């Protein structure tokens, strides 16, 4: 039996640790769990798996046209270390899923998959450890496509949206399947290869795990604590929210207590091989050569306090000009933003989602 999901994304954990504004919408209906098992799966690395399991949640009910085709499906993609269930958090679901909300579950059929290597989908910690195939973002999008089409019977998506890694997957979806969706919304990401500081901290995190003697080439029986601690330290910084942390961690002691608490929680929740693979999956991501092939209307959203995607680089402004129906929105720093984790605080950017859905309605 597969192990239960062991971790949430870094930014989801950080966001839940910070003070949230009151959410007044009524609770949304419970999500339905499902699994799709693919046979004889080939990865871009040349490796194979006899079986690959993709776990997912759905909310809402499919609507069909006169030909029986599902017309209201929305695919929502999580970030590195996350799962589809993170989108049930109140700062996301409570803002987007309720009656009259942008993704009202009485109107839309929402699909929330766990990516390869994440949550309750197949991952190294299930037993293969470092012998698990070295998947990349293209493999993850291929699995999402097969889930949607082969298992759920969806031939066209109303919207593809994603946060962080899921935002990068959204760019890949727009290029590989340009006619498959009405609209695209990538959040907290960039449409270029991961280089510079973004690549640097990722390599440092991976090296910390690999260079720990207790990692044992991936065949450890106890977690390599030193390597995992260093990797978690780097992830905490990458997902940090300066303004929120300055307010909520206002004394030296509160900072120390916060770090100690987070380290205990995350050491217990993370598997070193899973984390290593999750970070490494970004190694060959680069949608920039084919941005002109994206035809669906797209709104790209980043926040100005994002350590991982700093606005001073000007990348998004430069590259969005190459997207036929693209628009870039930079959310300024405010009491509502949460650094990289702003992508999950839907109240900050829901107006742009509403705009995108309205302008692409048929």
Automatic annotation (TrEMBL):
UniProt-annotated catalytic positions: 164, 306, 340
Signal peptide: 1-30
Molecular function per GO: homoserine O-acetyltransferase activity; hydrolase activity
Keyword DNA-binding: no
GO biological process, one term: homoserine metabolic process
Keyword entries, A-Z: Hydrolase, Signal, Transferase
Pfam families for the chain: Abhydrolase_1
Highest taxon above the source species: Bacteria
Domain spans labelled AB hydrolase-1: 72-313
NCBIfam families recorded: PRK06489.1
Protein name per UniProt: Alpha/beta fold hydrolase
């Amino acid at each position: 039996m597969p192990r239960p999901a062991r971790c949430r994304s870094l930014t989801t954990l950080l966001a839940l640790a910070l003070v949230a504004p009151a959410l007044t919408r009524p609770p949304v209906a419970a999500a339905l769990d499902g699994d799709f098992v693919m046979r004889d799966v080939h990865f871009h690395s040349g490796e194979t798996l006899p079986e690959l399991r993709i776990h997912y949640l759905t909310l809402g009910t499919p609507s069909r046209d006169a030909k029986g085709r599902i017309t209201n499906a929305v695919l929502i993609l999580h970030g590195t270390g996350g799962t589809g269930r993170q989108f049930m958090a109140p700062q996301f679901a409570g803002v987007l899923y309720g009656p009259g909300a942008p993704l009202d579950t009485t109107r839309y059929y929402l699909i929330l998959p766990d990516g390869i290597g994440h949550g309750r989908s197949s991952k190294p910690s299930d037993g293969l450890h470092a012998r698990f195939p070295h998947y990349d973002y293209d493999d993850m999008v291929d699995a999402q496509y097969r889930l949607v089409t082969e298992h759920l019977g969806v031939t066209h998506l109303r919207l593809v949206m994603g946060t962080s890694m899921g935002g990068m997957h959204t760019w890949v979806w727009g290029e590989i399947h340009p006619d498959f969706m009405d609209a695209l919304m990538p959040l907290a990401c960039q449409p270029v290869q991961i280089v510079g500081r973004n690549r640097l901290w990722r390599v440092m995190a991976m090296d910390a795990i690999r260079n720990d003697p207790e990692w044992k080439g991936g065949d450890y029986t106890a977690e390599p604590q030193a390597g995992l601690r260093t990797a978690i330290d780097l992830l905490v910084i990458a997902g940090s929210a300066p303004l929120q942390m300055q307010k909520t961690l206002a004394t030296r002691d509160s900072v120390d207590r916060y770090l100690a608490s987070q380290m205990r929680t995350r050491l217990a929740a993370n598997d070193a091989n899973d984390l290593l693979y999750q970070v490494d999956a970004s190694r060959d991501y680069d949608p920039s050569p084919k941005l002109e092939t994206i035809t669906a209307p797209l709104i790209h959203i980043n926040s100005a306090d994002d350590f991982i995607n700093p606005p001073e680089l000007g990348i998004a402004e430069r590259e969005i000009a190459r997207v036929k129906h693209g628009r870039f929105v930079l959310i300024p720093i405010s009491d509502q933003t949460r650094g990289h984790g702003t992508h999950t605080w839907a109240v900050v950017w829901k107006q742009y989602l509403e705009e995108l859905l309205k302008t692409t309605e048929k």
